[in-house]
Amino acid sequence: MSRSEFTYSENVLQWVWKTLHFDTSSLSTATGKECEIRVIDPGELNTTDGPDFKNAVIEIDGVKWHGSVEMHIGSKSWYSHGHHHDKNFNSVVLHVVVEEDPVQVSCEDGNKPFTLNLLPHFNKEVGDLFRAMNNSSGLPCANGLTYISEKALSQQIEKAQFEYLEKKVNDFIEFFDPALLPFNAWKSALILSLFDGFGISKNREQMVKVGEKFLEMYGECNKGFPIQALHEFSQTLNWNYRGVRPHNRPEIRVVESIAIGRAVMELPEEQFLEQSTTDLWKAILKKSSISESGRTRILFGTVFIPAMYTLGNLLAYEKLKYSAFQEWKYLSVPVPDELLERYAKVPGLSPEIYSGKLGAVHQLRSYCSKRRCHECFVLKKVISS
Question: Could you state, in order of their start, the residue ranges of all structural domains in the chain?
Answer without folding.
Answer: 3-134, 178-305+318-328
